[in-house]
Specification:
Helix content: under 10%
Strand content: over 45%
CATH class: Alpha Beta
Shape: globular
Low-confidence stretches: none
Strand order of the largest sheet: 2-3-4-1-5-8-7-6
Length: 104
């Protein structure tokens, strides 16, 4: 299973409805509230995410197995991490950043 669920767009501007993600050093909007499934991400200087993510768009997809798609990727940007009700991992494939989301 590989189901695209949102597009992550880096921004330096505050966005209406953004929420702070404790421990990650980012503000995000809720993509489910966007008619175009856009998630705006505003990175703080102390963000845990690498610099390349601060400027490049990413595509997020629900997957049945993060490990399966890590094997198909070119590199791992952010290793698998626990995000409460799901696991997240960021990889690169052909220069594109992809967020993998595996539900628990």
């Amino acid at each position: 299973m590989f189901e695209i669920v949102h597009i992550g767009i880096p921004t330096t501007q505050e966005k209406e409805g953004e929420v702070f993600v404790e421990g990650a050093g980012i503000y995000v909007t809720v993509p489910e509230l966007s008619p175009f499934a856009m998630e705006y991400v505003r990175f703080l200087p102390n963000s845990i995410f690498p610099e390349e993510m601060h400027y490049d768009v990413h595509v997020a997809a629900k997957v049945d197995s993060i490990e399966k798609y890590v094997e198909l990727s070119d590199s791992v940007i952010v290793p698998k991490m626990d995000n409460g009700d799901c696991y997240l991992c960021f990889v690169k494939k052909d220069g594109a950043i992809i967020e993998l989301i595996e539900m628990k």
